[in-house]
Amino acid sequence: MGVVDLTVNLGGLSLKNPVMPASGTFSCGSEMDGIIPRCQLGALVTKSVTLEPKPGNPGPRLFETACGLLNSVGLPSPGIDAFLRDELPSVRDAQTAIIVSIAGERPGDYCRLAERLDEEPGVAALELNLSCPNVEGGLWFSSDPDLLGKVVALVRGVTALPIIAKLSPSVADIAQMARAAQEAGASAVSAVNTFPGLAIDTRSRMPVFPRGHGGLSGPAIKPLALKAVWDIFRGSSIPIIGMGGIVSARDALEFIMAGASAVAIGTGNFVNPRAMLEVIQGIKEYLEASGLESPGQIVGAAHRPGASSQWEG
Amino acid sequence: MNGPACPGFVGVMAKGTVTQNNKPAQGYLALTIHAPEVARRARPGQFVMVRGWGTHSPLLPRPFSFHRLYPSVGLFQILVRVVGEATTLMSGWVTGHELQLLGPLGNGFPLTAGGRAAIVARGTGVAPMVALAEALGALGVSTRAYLSASNRASLVGFASLSQVAESVETTTDDGSQGPPGLVTRFFERDLERLSFDVVYTCGSKRLARATRRLQETHGFRAYISLEATLACGVGSCRGCVIPVRDAQGRETYQRVCREGPVFPLHGVNLE
Fold first, then answer.
1. How far, in Å, CA of B174 to CA of B171, rounded?
2. pTM
3. Alpha carbons A40 and A78: distance in angstroms, whole number
């Protein structure tokens, strides 16, 4: 039996293994080193950074639901200047790929952020947060393929860094969004962001969040997210970072078999702070037990001819 | 003696084992947990994230402050009010039940040797105060406690505090142990003849507002321990922020889990 090689290549972005945190869920500073050594992760993904400092939404920002978590955090950001000065330096020594998530209100915002980050050493790729459900306009970028393609193309024009487009699940045809991202020059897509959701306080007869809705994550959304990854794999050829409710290696393997080349863990980090390490180990053990050498050998495995044809018209 | 020793440290992930699950009052649990590393590092006012169910519902670990600390025998105790799905599950935990822990987390109460301290707490807000009173006692601080609860049975922590504090005054909403009303009236009475260096409060915004009014006239230091729904517990997710006013009057969001859960009383929004 050969030795398992966990390295993956996402359209030019090389990672030591296919497991990373979802943006906004894992502190990228050294605080977690005693619990999760950053160097063991496939990549670090920062919380979304914006041009100007933003405080985020007023609280409450969290509400637990059945097997899920609603959040209305709303992209708090120190702004790009403070990020480059205070946060990026502490991430650079992480000895793994640094993916910086960027978010804007206008297409030009993404360009200006990409220009600033393009000059910075130690940034491996940019993830475009086009689909945050908690900010005005957020869903708009990722619900119109032309607009999504325009933002990606603009960023493509100002940086040579690999671009990852983070997709919203709230669209009629997510594969169309993935194709638009690919045609505009994205190297990969992250799928999916949280699902818009709502909770109401029956005492106040008002939504629990001041903004009304939030974004739903956690095991509750896993089958929905898995279907989105499946659809993207069917309808496009762009590499996929799969995410949505992954808490175990088995969950991650399902995403890989649905078509993800890598996976991200978000809410799972809260449920179990060592979830990412356990998923890396679990994928390795699964491949060893199956006599396989690379996770690439099972990417999209569930799509093999005939596997599901009896269920489709 | 003052908070966590190393900057950036966010606690340890550890296995814990339930050694005792007592019911000190109707609707309350006092869970004693064996986890030597957590017990050794913990300081009064810090908290621990606890998860002890194998299912996805409840999903997130729950935060609890340290109620009692017994580092020499590797134990700590948390005080739990049974209010929902997770705490109902916890009421069924028996000796030997295994837990996933992350802690100690957050900043503990600032402590200074000597002088006089007051503890003002209501209901479950007494949870961090017993460990605090013990630490104050060890530092030679004379401590007076002022406790409030809906009724006599809900005055959990009264017996423990009575052993370590110089005095414990109580009010109860139904008059069953102490008259109804703000327990800070006893504190105000004591302020007329005694000087206090520091006040620690938890569990009631109403009592915190009354404490702050007294702070304005008497000038003692005051700290409040706050509660919030937490997800990560370490500051990553930014889900637990509250508006806090700095010395210049500028309001910023601060994380209850990371900058707190103990805050200087003057900057916290108590509306």
1. 9
2. 0.94
3. 27
